[in-house]
Amino acid sequence: MSRFLSKFLLSFAAAACIVSPAMADEKVTKAMSALKQELAAQGKPRLEGDQLFFGSSKINGDFTIVDKITAKHGGTATLFVKEGNNYIRRSTNVMKAGQRAVGTPLDPSGPAKAAIDSGKPFYGPVDILGKIYQTGYEPIVNESGATIGIYYVGYSLE
After folding, report:
1. What Å distances lie between residue 110 and 26, 65, 123, 140, CA to CA?
2. Where does residue 122 rank: exposed (0-12), middle (13-18), buried (19+ CB within 10 A)?
3. Helix, strand, or coil (residue 31)
C-alpha cells in the first residue's frame, strides 16, 4: 500500500476514532492504567519551569517508569511536558534513528493534540514519527486543573 494511501486511511480512522478509554483496545487501557498508577504512587504532578515532577521525582530524562511499563505490558510509553502550545517528549522509549525521541513534539496537527487541548483523552491509531501505532493519550493535570503534560502508551501496528 502506498504511503499516501496509508496516511489517508489513518486520517479517516482517526477522524472516526473512539476517544473513550472505556471502548479502547484492552492492552492500551491496561498499560495506561499501569502508567498512571506508577506515577500516582510518586505523588501529585507539577511543573517547575519545563521540568515535570510527580511528588519529588523529576521525570524529565528519567526513563525508569516508561521502561517498567514497557517491560511489563509491551509497546511504548511516553510522558510529554506542555511547553507553550506544544507537548514535548521528556521521558520516552519511542525511538527515532535508534535513540530515544526525547525532545520531539507531539504532532501539532494530530487528533491526539486536539483531544488533549480540549481536556479529553484520545484512543486510536496515530502516526508517530512515521510509524502507525494503536495509542492512548490522557492529559496530566495539576492540582489547579491545568493540563501540564500527557500520558501516552502505544503499540506498533506495523
Report:
1. 22, 25, 12, 18
2. buried
3. helix
Mind listing the pLDDT tens digit for each residue in 46-93? Answer: 999 999 999 999 999 999 999 999 999 999 999 999 999 999 999 999
Bridge-based pairing of strands 51-54 and 45-48 is: antiparallel
For residues 8 and 36, give the distance between their C-alpha atoms in angstroms, rounded to a whole number: 32
Q: Distance between CA atoms of 56 and 131, rounded to whole angstroms?
A: 34
For the record, the C-alpha cell of 133 comes out as 501505532
Please, are residues 99 and 122 in contact by the beta-carbon 8 Å criterion?
no
Task: Give per-residue pLDDT as tens, 2-11.
Answer: 444 444 444 4
Write out the chain in H/E/C secondary structure.
CCHHHHHHHHHHHHHCCCCCHHHCCHHHHHHHHHHHHHHHCCCCEEEECCEEEECCEECCCCCHHHHHHHHHHCCEEEEEEEECCEEEEEEECCEECCEECCCCECCCCCHHHHHHHCCCCEEEEEEECCEEEEEEEEEEECCCCCEEEEEEEEEECC
Q: What does DSSP say about strands 131-141 and 122-128: parallel, antiparallel, or unpaired?
A: antiparallel
Residue 80 has a pLDDT of 98
